[in-house]
Amino acid sequence: MSVEKNLKLEGMTCGHCVMSVTKQLQTLPGAKDVTVDLATQSAHLFTDEAVTNEDLAEAVDEAGYKLVSVS
């Protein structure tokens, strides 16, 4: 079963940033419908239930940015 996740991010400044975060989030188990928005510094995706907020933070960190919150 998929779980909807809304992320508030920090540090993105360009289209390359969006691509980097999108690519990293797509590596998470069951990740689909990944959308990253530069203007709102946010991301929206569906993942497997087993994906934790720590997993999300790690993926965003790998891309070089900061996860501020998850809802």
Structure description:
β2 and β3 (42-48) form a beta hairpin. α1 crosses α2 (53-63). The protein starts with a strand and ends with a strand. The mean pLDDT is 97. The protein has helices at residues 15-25, 53-63, and strands at residues 2-10, 32-37, 42-48, 66-70. It is α+β, with helices and mostly antiparallel strands and 71 residues long. The protein has two helices and four strands, in the order βαββαβ. A four-stranded antiparallel β-sheet has the order 2-3-1-4. It has one domain (2-70): 2-Layer Sandwich (Alpha-Beta Plaits), CATH 3.30.70.100.
Give the helices and strands, then pairings.
Blueprint: E1 2-10, H1 15-25, E2 32-37, E3 42-48, H2 53-63, E4 66-70
Antiparallel strand pairs: 1-3, 1-4, 2-3
Strand order in the sheet with the most strands: 2-3-1-4
H/E element sequence: EHEEHE
Low-confidence stretches: none
Global outline = globular
